[in-house]
Recover the amino acids of this structure.
């Protein structure tokens, strides 16, 4: 059995995601697709618009064979941490021959060439990078400027200016770090761009779909998502979703009021400078998103600050980034259930189907898993409070089987 691995958030699932699944199988010749997906919180430092089990079910109905959860500390980490965590899970399974990701570039050779530069860091590039960082640029912009300066005749700088390319490069860097035998493939992004807020005819961005849901334009989702997914969207609207960032505002303020300048710096992505800004501006806190805008500077992007605040809310500390030693199952297709057998025979890490099966896990691994449980229960609390539905503890959430 040939298996391809995908890394996704599906926030929410749409036509472009189904295209990705189908195209990945086509270009790799794979028989099955394993997806590593973010849980209830995503990489831009925000809650997912709908719960992970619902998003997993949509992916399974659209052709994914198995959906695994990316632990929350990696799912909400930097692009580098997000990519490394997801690639490491796929690599540890021992049976995934390829990974396939979307990019604006669509050329794996060009992306690999740029990845080699960023992994090896030639002296000229390092010097240029440090110069731009000293001049006050954020790391992403400083890196882009340094590449443009050192490699002016190539398209590297333009590539680093596009979000899917950046994430794709991080996947390639993770493969390099892990000395993985998985072969990378990329599919060129079609139609809409990552940050587009307007709906397109067929392939709209997740950003545009979230905006439509936020604005109450639910009927406009017809034709934007696969029909099976649309059925789920209609069934669970206003009972399981939508969930937005500002609905965590009071929870965040409570956590911030419990911290000191010193204690804030223990959390992932929180520098001493950011801790000072948070502490000094706390009286001006109105909402989660407003506070991110208030704290934003030329050196610190909105996404960086949003991730930092989310880490404080969820208790994710700088010391929490240990190796991932389990693969937690969110759902699978019955007609592809032999994938589970293949994994059990080849994997270097256990396939976790029950949260109580922790007897053989290390203390750090149990801590990582408990962090996922806490984050999920916190998310579920907001769901039930907003939508007036019964609370479902994470231990009682059933694996999705379609």
């Amino acid at each position: 059995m040939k298996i391809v691995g995908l890394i996704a958030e599906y926030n929410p699932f749409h036509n472009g995601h189904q295209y990705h699944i189908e195209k990945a199988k086509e270009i790799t010749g794979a028989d099955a697709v394993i997806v590593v997906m973010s849980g209830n919180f995503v990489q831009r430092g925000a809650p997912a618009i709908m719960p992970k089990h619902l998003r997993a079910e949509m992916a399974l109905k659209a052709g994914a064979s198995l959906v695994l959860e990316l632990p929350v500390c990696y799912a909400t980490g930097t692009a580098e941490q997000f990519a490394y965590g997801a690639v490491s899970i796929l690599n540890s399974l021992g049976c995934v021959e390829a990974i396939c990701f979307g990019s604006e570039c669509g050329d794996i050779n060009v992306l690999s060439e740029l990845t080699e530069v960023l992994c090896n860091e030639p002296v000229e590039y390092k010097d240029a990078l440090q110069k731009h960082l000293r001049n006050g640029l954020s790391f992403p912009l400083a890196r882009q400027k340094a590449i443009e300066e050192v490699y002016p005749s190539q398209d590297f700088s333009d590539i680093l200016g596009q979000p899917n390319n950046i994430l794709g490069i991080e996947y390639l860097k993770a493969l390099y770090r892990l000395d993985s035998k998985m072969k990378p493939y990329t599919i060129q992004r079609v139609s809409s761009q990552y940050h587009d807020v307007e709906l397109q005819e067929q392939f709209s961005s997740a950003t545009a779909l979230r905006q439509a849901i936020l604005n109450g334009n639910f009927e406009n989702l017809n034709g934007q998502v696969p029909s099976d997914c649309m059925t789920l969207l209609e069934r669970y609207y206003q009972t399981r979703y939508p969930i937005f960032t500002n609905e965590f505002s009071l929870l965040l303020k409570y956590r911030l009021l419990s911290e000191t300048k010193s204690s804030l710096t223990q959390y992932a992505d929180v520098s001493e400078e950011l801790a000072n800004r948070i502490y000094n501006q706390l009286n001006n806190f109105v909402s989660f998103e407003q506070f991110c805008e208030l704290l934003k500077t030329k050196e610190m992007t909105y996404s960086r600050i949003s991730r930092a605040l989310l880490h404080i809310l969820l208790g994710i500390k700088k010391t929490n980034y240990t190796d991932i030693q389990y693969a937690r199952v969110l759902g699978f297709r019955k007609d592809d259930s032999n994938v589970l057998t293949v994994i059990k025979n080849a994997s270097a890490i256990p396939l976790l189907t029950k949260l109580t099966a922790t007897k053989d896990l290390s203390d750090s691994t149990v801590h990582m898993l408990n962090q996922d449980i806490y984050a999920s229960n916190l998310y579920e609390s907001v769901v039930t409070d907003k939508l007036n539905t019964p609370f479902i503890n994470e231990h009682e959430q059933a694996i999705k089987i379609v």
